[in-house]
Amino acid sequence: MSKVIIIGGGAAGMMAAIAAAQNGNEVTLLEQNEKLGKKIYITGKGRCNLTNANDMETVRANVITNPKFLFSAFAAFDNQDIVRMVEEEGCPTKVERGMRVFPVSDHSSDVTRALQRRMERLGVEIRLYTCVESLLCEDGVCTGVRLANGKELSADAVVVATGGCSYPSTGSTGDGYRFAEESGHAVTERRPALVPFETKEAWTKELQGLSLRNVQVSIRKDGKTLYTEFGEMLFTHFGVSGPALLSASSVMGKKLPAQLVIDLKPALTEEQLDQRILRDFSQSMNKQLKNVLGALLPSKMVPVMIKVCGLDGDKQINEVTKEERHCLLQNIKNFTVTLTGLRGFNEAIITQGGVSVKDVKAGTMESKKVSGLYFAGEVLDVDALTGGYNLQVAWSTGYLAGSNIW
Question: What is the pLDDT of residues 338-396, one digit of tens each?
């Protein structure tokens, strides 16, 4: 039996504690917040998209950074395992659009409580309001931790599951990266991911709060399409956000600026859209252009579209030329916005970058440099798209780390 310390009471930390305790170890989980799973509480808009029900090959395909590193972790603990565990602890689940898995109650707290019940039954000691200052390492072996109050706790194994830099209000302050660097590990560049974009055009602010459903978005740079998605997006006071674009931030982080091209009517070909415009115009020949476009576009977008097309909104429909109609059609099918950058860690769902996987054993999550030291979850240089995939990475890496401690 080993004495195990888990640093961090988030998804990866709780799972590492459960797995280590199942092996008969004496496990202590240290969490600096007032409660466990603080970031879990805000995932999925408070509903907790705890995993994705697709096959694990699809889950792996949605990992952006270092997917091969996760083969052993996903094999050890997959999406069915996490669903089975929380349901055994009294938290039934359901599958929604995109194979996203949520608790039936739509309450994130039920997932955290289920895992806490499992830990308590396994005898895990949970210490809240406990901040770790540093790791204790001697001659290439991790021997424990030093707390912020100066007290030292000894251990045979330590799991760093401190999260990343995203949503720092939840306690993700980047301490794990410091622990890794201080103990001789490489840490790759960190940047916010699954985060909204900032845009160049001043008129974006005029569209603030406008949500577009069932649109096709493409991101292009130097004549190449780098990302495409169908779904929902949102205009904000600084740029664009929404489900169809959040995943794009993980792909595009290093490649900005770029052009966001929105097809506002993806169900219609250009020819079909032209016929639709002609039909609308023929029924309103004596009306002003600005009063007719509301049938085609959200009212908030009408003045912006007229501005982008360089048209006169007061012009009567019977005076609109074929060229002006064609310009309108092209902008409806290719409404273009310039993406200039990403928002910061305060708005990022996850962190891209982290402890280099080259310094971690993929089969156990143990450090290659320091014996008895393990890393799990977002602190690692592994990240995925939205849809429950990042939490699955946390569950799987946490479980693999804990289950390899004896």
Answer: 999 999 998 888 999 999 999 999 999 999 999 999 999 999 999 999 999 999 999 99
Calculate what percentage of the chain has a pLDDT beyond 70: 99
* pLDDT tens digit sequence for 65-87: 999 999 999 999 999 999 999 99
Q: Kindly report, residue by residue over 114-156, the tens digit of the pLDDT.
A: 999 999 999 999 999 999 999 999 999 999 999 999 999 999 9
Q: Do residues 307 and 275 both lie within one domain? A: yes
Angle between the 322-333 and 302-309 helix axes, to the nearest 10 degrees? 120
Full DSSP string of 38-52: TTGGGGGGGT---EE
* CB 192 within 8 Å of CB 342: yes
The residues near 203 (Cβ < 8 Å, ≥ 6 apart) are: 304, 307, 308
Asked if residue 399 and residue 256 are part of one domain, the reply reads no
List, in order, residues 6 or more apart from 55 with CB less than 8 Å away: none
Among candidate residues 382, 386, 80, 114, the one with its CA nearest the CA of residue 229? 386
Task: Return the DSSP state at 355.
Answer: B
For residue 233, the SS3 value is: strand
Residue ranges making up the domain that contains 153: 3-192+349-403
What is the pTM for the complete model shown? 0.90
- Looking at 281, 313, 335, the residue that finishes a domain is 335
Looking at the DSSP assignment, which residues form a beta bridge with residue 228?
A: 218
Nearest to 261 by CA among 293, 308, 295, 294: 308
Domain final residue, candidates 264, 298, 325: 264
